[in-house]
Amino acid sequence: MTTPHHPPSSPTRPHQAMGAGGEFDTIRMLMSRWGDLAADIGDDAAVLSPITSGVRVVSTDACVEGVHFRREWIAPYDVGVRAAAAALSDLAAMGAAAEYVLVAFVVPDGWRTALGAVADGIGAQVRRAGARIVGGNLSRGAAFGITLTVIGTAARAVSRAGAQVGDVVVVTGLLGGPGAALAAWESGVEPTGWAHERFVHPSPRLAEGALLAAAGASAMLDISDGLAADARHIAAASGVDLVIDDTRLPLGEGITAQNALRSGEEYELLATMAPSAYEALACAWPAGGVSLTVIGVVGPIGAAHRSGQGAVSPGHDHFRENS
Amino acid sequence: MTTPHHPPSSPTRPHQAMGAGGEFDTIRMLMSRWGDLAADIGDDAAVLSPITSGVRVVSTDACVEGVHFRREWIAPYDVGVRAAAAALSDLAAMGAAAEYVLVAFVVPDGWRTALGAVADGIGAQVRRAGARIVGGNLSRGAAFGITLTVIGTAARAVSRAGAQVGDVVVVTGLLGGPGAALAAWESGVEPTGWAHERFVHPSPRLAEGALLAAAGASAMLDISDGLAADARHIAAASGVDLVIDDTRLPLGEGITAQNALRSGEEYELLATMAPSAYEALACAWPAGGVSLTVIGVVGPIGAAHRSGQGAVSPGHDHFRENS
């Protein structure tokens, strides 16, 4: 949130729509709402504190109106909550703790009065994650969009490529909520409580990702494309098959296994690990919080076909025709 | 460029417009064009190499169609060149060397065939800067946009807040080109060669920024809002006045001082430094390349008023009514 763009005159008349004063006023409004979360903003780039152990990781993620949500579905505050959850989830998937967030807004005129509430939603997630907002960008544009860059530190960064034959496949939380919420909206009815809440207020699984990484997870990612598709990502990157037992999927209320396999933007974590590592982790896993469920095993390429199960997810595209 | 968004069905029918296969095909196309510039992409977040000295700095910058450029003005390749230059310029302004770039695209259907050329333009700048592309995001959306996050390392990060009374004010390069190009387009004529080139192919002043930082620049930023406005940023952050002598501005061909003071998106560097530091730097400054010009001095607050010059730039808003 350094120098905002002072765009040249353009077809949308930027100087009139959001001139120099207006842009700085907007930035001051954002700074005021974020308070100590964004205390040190002001230079062309933000200086990161040195780290003494582990590795720095970075990811960027965009949330665009009309693509990732419809305005009539969720309130501006929740737009911010979701955008930040999606970005922070990428750090969780690496086993990293969140440190820094940069927030680039594209703001049509019709969203200007809602921007403060969006910022509050982002701020709530950033605060919960223990991170700070250290930079950003403000631009006008035809469609509302937020591009968040997140930076964190991992004691050990977990990639997608380390799944080993014999590992178990685990997933956090209950699946299917976001898919059910979307299906409800698209059939013209308001989603039910649990599914609605899962769509509107996803939680990045930062603590769980750190536990999985510390326990020795061999591969990990967050479920953004749907369990089936994301399991394929691990399988392809690791050169193995993931054999998912669809009777073991942790389903949300009223969710079928097939729906859970395809429900995207879950922001739960999917990981593989040695059985012994899982056993140790299961004992240490916090009771009463987010669940951790074994849903399958890692086999050699071809294992998924041989298993004869319907809900397998190998390096092939069993779901391509439907996904 | 990890997992692309698989957005839910939406008003713009994402699954039909750019479905799972199409998104991954697009990512493969981008990877192919970027080649070794983007070799290690694939996880939820990118792991940064540790640094052994200096500090890591990060910035994010957006370029939106209809706000920062009109499509009829510049070719897709040049859209990429400009977007990357603008982002990398923020590292130059800190005195940092560029290391990593993350590229988040929002792509309307009408831009899909142009995306490869945009990527080539970004790639050319990233290669020239000696950086690598380590992540990104791909989304559909109503207006084309690029949000670039850049990460670099500075031996000594130069903020805006260090200008000292008695310092000289220096600027790199020749001013006024982008403003002249915009004025030409907006009056319906094609800009002239030099001004057009400056708008279409700005160069981030990374080498110059590093030289200025090493020479002891006390404050620095890149000129994105126009020299007058950006000088005010340094003045306000440092608690001083910058007294600019408008007869000393390094003007491009056919540019007046008043135009140069207001020309934005120059991506030249504006810095302050002790006179002795400037003298040493001037001797070491590479001949035949980008110029370095003293254009003023730093005075106490109020100095700009007392100087009686028209083109001063204090912590006040002399240019507010026009900017």
TrEMBL record, chains A, B:
<feature type="binding site">
    <location>
        <begin position="136"/>
        <end position="137"/>
    </location>
    <ligand>
        <name>ATP</name>
    </ligand>
</feature>
<feature type="binding site">
    <location>
        <position position="44"/>
    </location>
    <ligand>
        <name>Mg(2+) 3</name>
    </ligand>
</feature>
<dbReference type="Pfam" id="PF00586">
    <property type="entry name" value="AIRS"/>
</dbReference>
<dbReference type="InterPro" id="IPR036921">
    <property type="entry name" value="PurM-like_N_sf"/>
</dbReference>
<comment type="function">
    <text>Catalyzes the ATP-dependent phosphorylation of thiamine-monophosphate (TMP) to form thiamine-pyrophosphate (TPP), the active form of vitamin B1.</text>
</comment>
<feature type="binding site">
    <location>
        <position position="137"/>
    </location>
    <ligand>
        <name>Mg(2+) 1</name>
    </ligand>
</feature>
<feature type="binding site">
    <location>
        <position position="222"/>
    </location>
    <ligand>
        <name>Mg(2+) 3</name>
    </ligand>
</feature>
<feature type="binding site">
    <location>
        <position position="60"/>
    </location>
    <ligand>
        <name>Mg(2+) 1</name>
    </ligand>
</feature>
<keyword id="KW-0784">Thiamine biosynthesis</keyword>
<dbReference type="GO" id="GO:0005524">
    <property type="term" value="F:ATP binding"/>
</dbReference>
<dbReference type="Pfam" id="PF02769">
    <property type="entry name" value="AIRS_C"/>
</dbReference>
<feature type="binding site">
    <location>
        <position position="61"/>
    </location>
    <ligand>
        <name>Mg(2+) 2</name>
    </ligand>
</feature>
<feature type="binding site">
    <location>
        <position position="90"/>
    </location>
    <ligand>
        <name>Mg(2+) 4</name>
    </ligand>
</feature>
<feature type="binding site">
    <location>
        <position position="61"/>
    </location>
    <ligand>
        <name>Mg(2+) 1</name>
    </ligand>
</feature>
<keyword id="KW-0460">Magnesium</keyword>
<dbReference type="GO" id="GO:0009229">
    <property type="term" value="P:thiamine diphosphate biosynthetic process"/>
</dbReference>
<comment type="pathway">
    <text>Cofactor biosynthesis; thiamine diphosphate biosynthesis; thiamine diphosphate from thiamine phosphate: step 1/1.</text>
</comment>
<dbReference type="InterPro" id="IPR036676">
    <property type="entry name" value="PurM-like_C_sf"/>
</dbReference>
<feature type="binding site">
    <location>
        <position position="44"/>
    </location>
    <ligand>
        <name>Mg(2+) 4</name>
    </ligand>
</feature>
<feature type="domain" description="PurM-like C-terminal">
    <location>
        <begin position="164"/>
        <end position="299"/>
    </location>
</feature>
<dbReference type="GO" id="GO:0009228">
    <property type="term" value="P:thiamine biosynthetic process"/>
</dbReference>
<comment type="similarity">
    <text>Belongs to the thiamine-monophosphate kinase family.</text>
</comment>
<keyword id="KW-0479">Metal-binding</keyword>
<keyword id="KW-0418">Kinase</keyword>
<feature type="binding site">
    <location>
        <position position="68"/>
    </location>
    <ligand>
        <name>substrate</name>
    </ligand>
</feature>
<feature type="binding site">
    <location>
        <position position="90"/>
    </location>
    <ligand>
        <name>Mg(2+) 3</name>
    </ligand>
</feature>
<dbReference type="GO" id="GO:0000287">
    <property type="term" value="F:magnesium ion binding"/>
</dbReference>
<dbReference type="InterPro" id="IPR016188">
    <property type="entry name" value="PurM-like_N"/>
</dbReference>
<dbReference type="InterPro" id="IPR006283">
    <property type="entry name" value="ThiL-like"/>
</dbReference>
<feature type="domain" description="PurM-like N-terminal">
    <location>
        <begin position="42"/>
        <end position="153"/>
    </location>
</feature>
<keyword id="KW-0808">Transferase</keyword>
<protein>
    <recommendedName>
        <fullName>Thiamine-monophosphate kinase</fullName>
        <ecNumber>2.7.4.16</ecNumber>
    </recommendedName>
</protein>
<dbReference type="GO" id="GO:0009030">
    <property type="term" value="F:thiamine-phosphate kinase activity"/>
</dbReference>
<feature type="binding site">
    <location>
        <position position="225"/>
    </location>
    <ligand>
        <name>Mg(2+) 5</name>
    </ligand>
</feature>
<feature type="binding site">
    <location>
        <position position="224"/>
    </location>
    <ligand>
        <name>ATP</name>
    </ligand>
</feature>
<keyword id="KW-0067">ATP-binding</keyword>
<feature type="binding site">
    <location>
        <position position="160"/>
    </location>
    <ligand>
        <name>ATP</name>
    </ligand>
</feature>
<dbReference type="InterPro" id="IPR010918">
    <property type="entry name" value="PurM-like_C_dom"/>
</dbReference>
<feature type="binding site">
    <location>
        <position position="90"/>
    </location>
    <ligand>
        <name>Mg(2+) 2</name>
    </ligand>
</feature>
<feature type="binding site">
    <location>
        <position position="265"/>
    </location>
    <ligand>
        <name>substrate</name>
    </ligand>
</feature>
<feature type="binding site">
    <location>
        <position position="59"/>
    </location>
    <ligand>
        <name>Mg(2+) 4</name>
    </ligand>
</feature>
<keyword id="KW-0547">Nucleotide-binding</keyword>
